Amino acid sequence: MSKQTEAAYHYIKQKIIDGSYMPYQKLTEAQLAEAIGVSRNTIKKALLKLEQEKLVTIEENKGASIKSFSLEEVMNYLDIRAVLEGLVAKSIAKDIGMTELEKLNIILQEMAIRLEEKKYDEYADLNKDFHNVIYTATKNSQAVELLDMIKTQLKRFQFRIILVQGRVQESYKEHIKIYEALKAHNEMEAEEAVKNHVFNIRRTISQNYHLFR
Asked: What residues contact 158, with CB distance under 8 A and at least 6 apart?
């Protein structure tokens, strides 16, 4: 992928993830090319890459549009994510080192501060950092690759889930449970704590789907 194509790809992808581009919205190659300052051919290549990641739908004679996921599709992705997250947590629980545990503890402290200050965007970034520590610790890189793919497709929901009253506070408690299970080197509890975290995300989206469409 050329630098221009990569730049166009990241520009459009970010607009999809942060909700600037909405589900079903048409993407006009000419307008994108002008906005980004690249050729239409570059835009075509970027859109093809986004189609591979299931963020964009391209139809013949109709062009590209932002892919919309049905509630059933979202629920299925989260079911898969729960299993994979549980697998990863279980794989590291027994042998996780003090360095990783200290990183998780520091992140939890920062999360508590952001929660108190109601800086939810920064909380979301720390949430990502927390899980990345776990992903880095596992030897199951294939599971992490699949998780990255699923989380990329569903990341647009992350920016709206904080609208649900009480969800961020629940999230923090769930992360504490994950940390405590890992600190105790309890494989089963670590697996269950992570799966419970994802299932609660699943429940929140299911009950408030109108906020995420």
From this structure: 124
Distance CA 9, CA 19 (A): 16
Nearest-angstrom CA–CA distance, 128 and 45 = 29
Q: Shortest CA distance to 121 belongs to which of 74, 168, 81, 78?
A: 168
Q: Which residue has the higher pLDDT, 129 or 68?
A: 129
Block residue for tokens 């609208």: 163
pLDDT-derived band at 14 (thresholds 50, 70, 90) equals: confident
Q: What is the pLDDT of residues 29-76, one digit of tens each?
A: 888 988 899 999 999 999 999 888 888 899 887 888 988 888 899 999
Please report where in the chains the tokens 């649900």 appear, as a residue: 164
Side by side, which strands form the sheet with 26-27? 26-27, 63-66, 56-59
Using 50, 70 and 90 to split pLDDT, how confident is the model at 122?
Answer: very high
d(CA 125, CA 146): 20
Distance of CA 125 to the CA centre of its chain: 10
Q: Which of 96, 169, 195 is nearest to 137 (CA)?
A: 96
**202 phi and psi angles, rounded to 5 deg:** -60, -45
